[in-house]
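Action item from last week, closing it out:
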Amino acid sequence: MEDMKQEAPSCQYRYVWMPALWGTGQNFPLEGLVPAAERLWPGLPAALARPCGAPAFEPADLPLGAREMGAYLNDLEAFSAEAARGGDAVSAMLAESLRRDQETQLARELAEVQALAGSGAAQPAAQAAPVMRQRAQRLLAWFWFQQKNLAEIAELVRRVNSGVQGLGEGLAKDTAETPGLEAGVIPLATDLEEGMDEMGGDWRRWLEAALALTGEETVFVLDRLPEGLEAAAGPFDGGADFAVQLGAPEGIAVSGAVVPAGQLLPKAVWLPDAERAVRLVLVLAGERA
């Protein structure tokens, strides 16, 4: 992974896309317009990475190595395969089993944190942090797994849609008396975009995990506001000219907000500093803010 590690940009902040992770094969239009923004990479085996438009940012000193993360992804693959083979009832049973396993693991990790806090240690938070950083890294791997699967389905739908449109054109050319086949595009792309927005979970969980692994210089960049974020963050405005640091061209609107972590994540499992300033930047096609 050494070739994917990036030096911090020369500007004051490090810009990281939210929630798109690196190596999933998913690309989106605005990515190439803000070259300073990177994508978070949770330390998975390099062989699993698929091309993405933005460069990778692997946080320093991740608690779990690539081999351990590969084993975790193998477990996710096995669960996914079992769920696909079973019926609805079997899939529901497997999902419930996975949920119980995750809750049991989380309870064990929280017990370790509480034990450290009550041990009289001089710095219990510093000792507990590695436990929660491991949980954060696994959680980002879970999001990566879902995003990679959605990207694969989106590519398949794109190819099918292309073939369906070409079939209609071919029939029109071959048979003068027969009109072209009225084969519309399969209406799945919008659903996939919505699924990517949902990330298979809450944006708060993604952000909580990312905050556990990144420094305070990190700025999270979005190309749309997921449900509930605007209400939690308050209004975005153009007070800070993030557009220059991001390298955004004319015609791109960039606005920002700075919010205490405790306001965005009031029920977070692990927030060592609820007053940490979380910087959010919204990038949209249109006139610059």
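Closing note: Strands lie at 14-21, 38-40, 56-57, 218-222, 252-260, 277-285.
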